[in-house]
Amino acid sequence: MANTPLFLLITVLPALTLSVNVKIVNGTEVVPNSRPYMASVQENGKHVCGGFLVARSYVMTAAHCWKDGRERRVVLGVHKLAAKKIGRLRVKHYAVFPEYDDTRWKYDIMLLELKNKVRLSNKVRLISLPERDEDVKAGTNCTIAGWGAKSTSGPTVQRLMEANVQIMDREECKRLWGKSAPITPQLLCAYGGAGFCKGDSGGPLVCDGKAVGVASFFQKKNCNNPTLPNVYTKISAYLPWVYTKISSFLLWIKAIIGRKP
Q1: pTM for the full model?
Q2: Which residues are catalytic?
Q3: In whole angstroms, what is the distance from residue 238 CA to residue 109 CA?
Q4: Are residues 230 and 133 in the same domain?
């Protein structure tokens, strides 16, 4: 599930043999419209990344899903991407976090400002965000979703898939990744019987009804049987920046109170 660029496809350390059992093939198709916050970020009508609606005119995704000079459009409120009638929303502005570093896998978060505000419905809804600097305890059960590949070399899928994962202790995650990637306090790690793959970057890690992470990177060419956990950008570390970008903040807060997937 994630259209992860080559700079995010990390080389596996030969000495690491502990398997964290991350297999997207164990995901299941979601109940249609059960995740109305999900967004498909597309290029030339084709899905390239996931995303999620955090305000009526803003979709959150990963910074590495942006490519200079390439127009992205957003699809909301669909379960099957091949549906006959599908509206692709234009992006007015790409707000990449200022300190994003595409060589060190840091600050991998972006807001897409849509040209027009979307109309909320049972198929299109916002998802709540965590409190500022809120962390997620190791062992917490969470979910991921996306239209990405179900296997390392497989194609992206047409119907939205979901899977259950668990938050991993950050120090353990740091030990496993070693020098291959800097696991900082601004990241979350997850493992379990499923994980994300090509086409899922930018999708949300959802815990207790809130989007707490943005799918960022995974083990190189190994969605099926990786020895390393998936890594997400921790949203709570970036909330001050997010709030400065989202207009009508008070109205946005009112809109998300009590809204859960």
Answers
A1: 0.85
A2: 64, 108, 201
A3: 8
A4: yes
Terminal Cα-to-Cα distance of the chain (whole angstroms): 20
| pLDDT tens, the chain, 261 aa long | 544 443 343 333 333 333 343 334 457 899 999 999 999 999 999 999 999 999 999 999 999 998 877 899 999 999 999 876 788 999 999 999 999 987 777 899 999 999 999 999 999 999 999 998 999 999 999 999 999 887 777 788 889 999 899 999 999 999 999 988 889 999 999 998 778 888 999 999 999 999 999 999 988 778 877 788 999 999 999 999 998 888 655 445 544 544 443
Q: Domain check: are 98 and 142 in the same one?
A: no
Q: SS3 string of 118-141? A: CCCCCCCCCCECCCCCCCCCCCCE
Task: Centre a 10 Å sphere on the Cβ of residue 247 and count the other Cβ atoms it contains.
Answer: 13
CB neighbour list of residue 216: distance below 8 Å, 6 or more residues apart? 8, 62, 64, 105, 108, 187, 201, 231, 232, 233
**CA separation, residue 149 to residues 10, 155, 205, 226 (Å):** 18, 5, 17, 15
Q: How far apart are CA 92 and CA 110, in angstroms?
A: 13
Q: Are residues 122 and 144 in the same domain?
A: no
DSSP assigned state of 64: G
From residue 97, alpha-carbon distances to 24, 63, 106, 121, 235 in Å are: 28, 7, 10, 29, 12
Q: Residue with structure tokens 């109309």? A: 119
Could you list the residue range(s) of the whole structural domain that residue 104 is in?
38-126+238-256
Task: Using the Cα atoms of residue 77, residue 195, residue 127 and residue 92 in order, give the sign of their dihedral.
Answer: negative
What is the number of domains present in the chain?
A: 2
Which CATH number goes with the domain that contains 204?
2.40.10.10
Residue 207 included in any domain: yes
| Number of other CB atoms surrounding residue 135 within 10 Å | 16
